[in-house]
Structures are given as C-alpha cells and as structure tokens.
Design goal:
The chain is an alpha+beta fold. Helices cover about 25% and strands about 25% of the residues. The chain has three helices and nine strands, in the order ααβββββαββββ. The chain has a four-stranded mixed sheet with strand order 1-4-7-6, with no helix packed on it. Strands 5-8-9 form a three-stranded antiparallel sheet. A two-stranded antiparallel sheet has the order 2-3. A hairpin with a 6-residue loop joins β6 and β7. The N and C termini lie far apart (about 45 Å). The relative contact order is 0.16.
Length: about 130
C-alpha cells in the first residue's frame, strides 16, 4: 500500500530536479532535529545525514574485473559561520557554493568520519565539528 500522496510525489520531483548543492541545503534543514524512532532515550544518540557510497570496477592482479568494496562518505554541511569569521563578511546561507560537485575531502578529526563537501570549510554532520576540507 502506497502511503505517499500526490503532494509527496510533487515534492519528490522537485528534489530530484535540484542540483546536489541545493539538495544538501534542503536536507540539512530537514535532518537538523530528526532522529531515528526509538532513540529518544538518554543512552542513545542518533540523527539522519546525507551520505554517498562509491565503488570502482577495477582490474584485479589476476587480470579479471571486479567491483571494489564500497567507500562510504558523509556529506559535510557548508560552515558559513567560519566563512563569516575568517573573511570578516556575511555569507548568505542561501548561497550553496560553486557547482564543482562534492570534490572537497577530509576525515573529521573528532569522529573519524570520511567527508565530502562542495566548499572547503564544512561541518561534520555526525558530530558537528568544523572541518577544513581539501
């Protein structure tokens, strides 16, 4: 039984048409206070985040082709506060950065999560640490 309404399907079409950076900006706001059902107890923490999974089809040493294991990365949120402090300016949070894709990479120094971002200064969506990506 489909629980989605026509409004839900319209929203899906809008989100599918959005560029990656706009989708990230939308989901950052959606996921801000969302947790997994049943994790509202004092001994559990959870939250949703956007991630990516990538793997390569590579030639193995024996000459055969095979899929490598999946690499999982969280997508870091743009860190507008750090941009504002560093460059003494007011960056508009509606600005989502240049469309270079999620080409910036880092490993969060606090939680060890591998991250991608479309900007050099991001916020780890797992532990909320400001991270410089290269």
């Amino acid at each position: 039984m489909d629980t989605l309404t026509p409004d839900h399907y319209a929203l899906i079409e809008i989100l599918q048409a959005a560029p990656d950076e706009v989708l990230l900006a939308i989901l950052q706001r959606v996921f801000a206070d969302r947790t997994l059902t049943g994790t509202d107890v004092p001994i559990v923490q959870s939250h949703f985040f956007l991630g990516s999974a990538t793997r390569l089809y590579e030639q193995m040493p024996d000459g055969t082709l095979a899929w490598e294991p999946w690499e999982i990365h969280a997508i870091a949120y743009p860190d507008f506060a750090t941009y504002n402090e560093t460059y003494n300016t007011q960056v508009d949070p509606a600005w989502v950065g240049p469309d270079y894709g999620f080409c910036q990479f880092a490993i969060c120094r606090t939680c060890g999560t591998q991250l991608y971002c479309n900007l050099k200064q991001g916020i780890c969506p797992i532990c909320n640490t400001s991270v410089y990506l290269t």
